[in-house]
Amino acid sequence: MSSPTPAPSGTSTIRLILAWSFVGIPLLWGVLETLRNALKLFQ
Amino acid sequence: MNAPPHPGAAGYLWGRSPGLPRQYTPRMRPLSFLDRDRTVAGSGFSRWMVPPAALCVHLCIGQAYAFSVFNLPMTRLIGITDSAPGDWKLTDLGWIFTLGIFFLGVSAAVFGRWVEEGGPRRAMFTAALCFGGGFLISAAGVYAHEIWVVYLGYGVLGGIGLGVGYISPVSTLIKWFPDRPGMATGMAIMGFGGGALIASPLSVWLMERFTTPSHIGVAETFIVLGVVYFLFMIVGAIIVRIPPPGWQPAGWTPPAQPPKLVTTANVYVYRALRTPQFWLIWWVLCLNVTAGIGVLGQASAMSQEMFPGKVSVIAAAGFVGLMSLFNMAGRFLWASASDYLGRKNTYFCFFILGTVLYALVPNTGRLGSVGLFVLFFLVIISMYGGGFSTLPAYLKDMFGTRYVGAIHGLLLTAWSAAGVFGPVLVNYIRAYEIAHGVPKADAYNATMYLMAALLVIGFFCNLFVRPVHARHHMSSVQAEATLVPQ
Fold this sequence. Notes:
heterodimer, A: mainly alpha, 1 helix, 60% helix, B: mainly alpha, Growth Hormone, Chain: A, 2 domains, two-stranded antiparallel ribbon, 18 helices, 2 strands, 1% strand
């Protein structure tokens, strides 16, 4: 059985914000672009 | 020849390396940072870092759903403004996506156990290499105008990246979120739906930048996407962690009496194939996906033909965009709801509500109600997405957490099968109806009733799902022998 080597410990709030922004901003951009096109359905 | 140091010596980790005894290896071994042992979280690590890591991968590989934006430009690589002799045909280009999805299913099934035992970081790194590398090889294929190189690049290598990437974070998320497994995997699989929303406008924008009056900028776009996706996925591989053995969320204790359909035991990946539950859930997924994927590909044409003069081409494109959004949102919302409803009940919702809505769609055409038509399909497509995202938690409930990623990989073959059944059913039935004199506006009615019937069959498959018999469970000795932490 292997003995795990712990990764550096602790997750700061700033790291969490950075990680979520890293994926959230492109996703938000994609959603807004899609919505912008989808609104043509109602015009 | 120097004798290998004692396994307990400083600087050595348990592991495996050629030329050394199996159980220890130098710390500096190349790529050892990918090892499962090196991804165990330290104290204080927030589990909320893991969903973004999973999204880094799924947002990239979700690009597959947007690959069609390259099809028309790739038919004009020689002719530039119009297809010229020697240009690729749409039918040839369609095989790129088909191969990609085929190899997604195959690689998820074949490499599932390797992904499970090698850990999420190694799998994400491999997926990044394959998916990014697939784009680069495809760029060379476009540059040389050799379509088989594109087939090999995006279709085969990229498809393997899709499959390995798709299952890579599943079991890790389930282990970090034992209290909300549906929500956790729903977040990741939502990313796969969201990936197309990013890739589509990004690809169009890049092609516009690289296209000149004498050149179509597909190859350059592939190179940029390959590099960007590789780097983005590597970020996910860097930040992903697995929980230490025995870890539980603070303040949470497993229920003393778990629900009847939730097991605390584990089933070995290939043993799961011998259970009726695996095949019943295989059909549950296949039928749910068949019903959704068939109309997903035909949504634009269907809306225009069912409502002639009422739905323009631009409005139809908007409808397709809305469906993408609901496909994505459904992945998160339905999977999260399954934590409260139970997985079996969630699939009952899909099958009952889906059957009713499909059966009612022809009436929207007769009533001329575009609003109801759109509403019905948005709910249907949310359940199509929900079917994908609720699946990992359903498998975890049935087969335990140890091999859930690998079992999930095996089950994704149902997706590949549905990818063939769904569009074929919709296209051929519509063609048959029109050939027999049915007006275009009514040509989809038979398909809608058939989809409703498929969902009824799915309802019964789900109904027959029972807890896995204890004879299929891994014994404690077998569990120890797998030597996989957590």
